[in-house]
Amino acid sequence: MTKLLRGLAGLLGFLVLWEVVVQVGLVSKTFIPPPSVVLVTVGDLLGDADFIRDVIATMLAWLIAILIAIVVGVLAGLLLGSVPVLRTATAAIVEFLRPIPVTALVPLVLLVIGSGPDAKISLAVYASLWPIMFNTIYGMGEIDPVLMETARACGTSRFRILSSVALPQTAPFIFTGIRLSATIALIAVVSVEFLAGSEVGLGNFILVASTGSVRFDLVLAGTVVAGVLGYLINEGLELLGKRLFRWSSIDREAIA
């Protein structure tokens, strides 16, 4: 509760400062409307069917992307974490691909896939895959070797070891990766919608608002909604993680 109150106090202070700066004329109301205008615009948009459709399109693409990233990231992390030779062999290409920003890949993806939902989903998967995979690999390295050796001594198959021993032990680390990747995936989806000119989505809404009638209150309102969605996703997953992994004493701060 204390954390929540401090967060609300900080947010309120930021909004007040923003309002004062705009009202005294330090910045133009035309380009940066005050929060009193932006929040009213947000309220109006929440009653607009077309805007709700854009939000749903963005969140659906986000959900598909994060689910794919979880499956691919966990499987790749378990494999690379359990086979050191394979991890060493793929280290160079992984470290080459990981720093490439999503925005740099947009033109290539548009040429290969097009500007439909597949483009933003693919790029969101690419962006959000790495934290999950690296947290899984890190978790594999933290497993007590005695557990693995005992399972092998009992004649347990590699698949059974990974699913019954490694996966439960690495679950807190994996969940941390998922929480990090969830917000990354949302950023990627909205960014690709904006840069690629998708037909629907929050990014498309912001693009149209900034290039059509140049309604900066709409631009900021769309940005605020995207920020709130990201905040809710992160807070929701953090609360879920605390409930799911009360048994774990592992420090589940960011690994990647």
UniProtKB/TrEMBL annotation:
Residue intervals of the ABC transmembrane type-1 domain: 55-237
Topology in the lipid bilayer: Multi-pass membrane protein
SUPFAM superfamilies: MetI-like
GO terms under cellular component: plasma membrane
Gene3D superfamilies given in the database record: MetI-like (1.10.3720.10)
Predominant cellular place of this UniProt entry's protein: membrane
One GO BP: transmembrane transport
Keyword Cell inner membrane attached: no
Protein keywords: Cell membrane, Membrane, Transmembrane, Transmembrane helix, Transport
Ranges that cross the membrane: 55-80, 92-113, 119-138, 184-207, 214-233
Pfam family, one: BPD_transp_1
Subcellular localization(s) per the UniProt record: Cell membrane
Family, as annotated: Belongs to the binding-protein-dependent transport system permease family.
UniProt protein name: ABC transporter permease
Species lineage: Bacteria, Bacillati, Actinomycetota, Actinomycetes, Pseudonocardiales
